């Protein structure tokens, strides 16, 4: 086999392997309240839906408010066959912009994390 064909074959194999690994992680598909959205009243819970089932023991969120204080949350639960992380919000959130930092462990053992913001209208 000519060297160029070997090189192309190797590059293709590596690309397929890396694509498979990237798709094996739980990615945030949707959130309520929505990312970059504005809600009229403070949410009583956050619902984060992922592309894969999660391990709730190693998954969670941190909500930071406009005053940089961390809001209290309740114990997270899994819904929708384990793909939605539901986190009760224990504090009454005041109007302003909030940041949600999330971290999850998918049931296949891959960790992912990220963040998004939403606003509560005055």
From TrEMBL:
UniProt keyword annotation of Signal present: yes
Keyword Signal among UniProt keywords: yes
Any one of the GO BP annotations: response to copper ion
Molecular function per GO: copper ion binding
Positions of the CopC domain: 25-120
N-terminal signal peptide: 1-24
Gene3D superfamilies reported in the protein's UniProt record: 2.60.40.1220
Any single GO CC term annotated in Swiss-Prot or TrEMBL for this entry: periplasmic space
Protein localization: Periplasm
One of the Pfam families matching this protein, by short name: CopC
Main localisation: periplasm
Coiled-coil boundaries: none
Keywords for the protein's UniProt record, in alphabetical order: Copper, Metal-binding, Periplasm, Signal
InterPro entries associated with the record: CopC-like, CopC/D, CopC_dom, Cu-Rt/internalin_Ig-like, Ig_E-set
Family: Belongs to the CopC family.
Name used for this protein in its record: Copper homeostasis periplasmic binding protein CopC
Organism ancestry: Bacteria, Pseudomonadati, Pseudomonadota, Alphaproteobacteria, Hyphomicrobiales
